[in-house]
């Protein structure tokens, strides 16, 4: 499912953290599949799985053996996976940092696709100016803004209907080093054809097509899931793919106010369908993963446990001892305090 945005803007990878999560690709990538697979069945426990079992599960999803091994190796180099060896057998598990990141991300995916909070009619505007030779910094800033729920109304001017939180402000300050200004206020419409509404920063038609494609792809599978006719490798593959696809929506449609959207917006139907497929396949998929892992171990794989969307919303607790609810989500916004008039313009770090 192709995205209406450049992939670098959807998935920020500025290299500022020790943990380097793989940059998401359009379509299914071996690293993305491997990370989703381990998160779906070991996030609670951070259980180590034999590398041969991970390769076997990935090949069932259409990844080549060489591609699966390369993905595991690269995830280990990125700090996403931790390796261990027992005799001639190697195993891998999610690192503590990756588990915390994925737990937070899973919570964000679900909470960000619920009905948007009441909107006060105000917009947050982020204006920035960077020299032409600062392309890396510009790309990192655009990626961070996209993660924070912003979209470009004009070059160098991004907007969001929600207040910039203190944590988000701190993230932007680290990236921009005095090259950004933040305002909040209402649009003063010109009432002419030259007037451009802030909501036009998002390609609403393109997002609608994304939702429609998702619904078209997965609706036909739902009766089979409900009837228990999807199991084994097919259940694991479908569950991995539906998560890998659905998690793009919180960035494409970051809780945009329903007042600004066409009637019959497909956010909720897509979320409901995702939950029905993902949760409906949890048990058969877990059973298959256990069976595959069991072929490569001498004991019963007790650490394989699928979670549901309800678990992700509540916070999946792993061996790292943290919950997703306690971690800051990758994208963060909030409705402003009702005591603050949004017509009072607030200015953030000023360009130097």
Automatic annotation (TrEMBL):
Transcriptional repressor PaaX-like N-terminal domain: which residues? 32-96
Q: Name one GO biological process term.
A: DNA-templated transcription
* Taxonomy, superkingdom: Bacteria
Q: Which Pfam families match?
A: PaaX, PaaX_C, PaaX_M
Q: Which InterPro entries match?
A: PaaX-like_central (IPR048846), PaaX-like_N (IPR012906), PaaX_C (IPR013225), WH-like_DNA-bd_sf (IPR036388)
Q: Cite the Gene3D superfamilies for this sequence.
A: 1.20.58.1460, 3.30.70.2650, Winged helix-like DNA-binding domain superfamily/Winged helix DNA-binding domain
Disordered as annotated region, ranges? 323-352
> Which part of the chain is the Transcriptional repressor PaaX-like central Cas2-like domain?
117-193
Q: Where is the Transcriptional repressor PaaX-like C-terminal domain?
A: 202-290
Q: What is the official name of this protein in its record?
A: PaaX family transcriptional regulator
């Amino acid at each position: 499912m192709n995205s209406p945005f450049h992939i670098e803007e959807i998935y920020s990878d500025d290299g500022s953290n020790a943990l380097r999560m793989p940059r998401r690709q359009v379509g299914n990538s071996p690293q993305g599949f491997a990370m989703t697979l381990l998160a779906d069945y070991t996030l609670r426990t951070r259980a180590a799985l034999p590398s041969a079992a991970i390769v076997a599960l990935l090949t069932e999803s259409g990844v080549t053996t060489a591609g699966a091994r390369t993905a595991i190796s690269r995830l280990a180099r990125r700090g996403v996976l931790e390796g261990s060896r027992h005799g001639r057998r190697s195993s891998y598990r999610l690192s503590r940092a990756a588990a915390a990141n994925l737990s937070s991300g899973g919570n964000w995916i679900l909470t960000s696709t619920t009905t948007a909070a009441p909107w006060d009619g105000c917009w947050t505007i982020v204006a920035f100016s960077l020299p032409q030779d600062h392309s890396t910094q510009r790309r990192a800033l655009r990626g961070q803004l996209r993660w924070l729920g912003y979209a470009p109304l004009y070059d160098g001017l991004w907007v969001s209907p929600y207040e910039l939180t203190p944590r988000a402000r701190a993230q932007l300050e680290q990236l921009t080093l005095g090259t950004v200004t933040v305002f909040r206020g209402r649009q003063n419409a010109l009432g002419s054809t030259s007037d451009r509404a802030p909501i036009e920063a998002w390609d609403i038609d393109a997002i609608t097509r994304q939702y429609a494609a998702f619904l078209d792809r997965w609706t036909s599978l739902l009766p089979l899931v409900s009837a228990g006719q999807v199991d084994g490798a097919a259940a694991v593959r479908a569950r991995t793919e539906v998560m890998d696809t659905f998690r793009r929506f919180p960035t494409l449609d970051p809780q945009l106010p329903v007042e600004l959207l066409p009637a019959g917006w497909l956010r909720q139907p897509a979320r409901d369908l995702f939950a029905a497929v993902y949760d409906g396949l949890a048990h058969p998929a877990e059973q298959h993963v256990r069976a595959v892992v069991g072929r490569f171990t001498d004991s019963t794989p007790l650490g394989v446990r699928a979670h549901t969307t309800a678990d992700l919303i509540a916070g999946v607790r792993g061996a790292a001892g943290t919950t997703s609810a306690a971690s800051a989500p990758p994208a963060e916004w909030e409705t402003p305090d009702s005591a603050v008039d949004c017509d009072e313009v607030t200015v953030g770090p000023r360009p130097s």
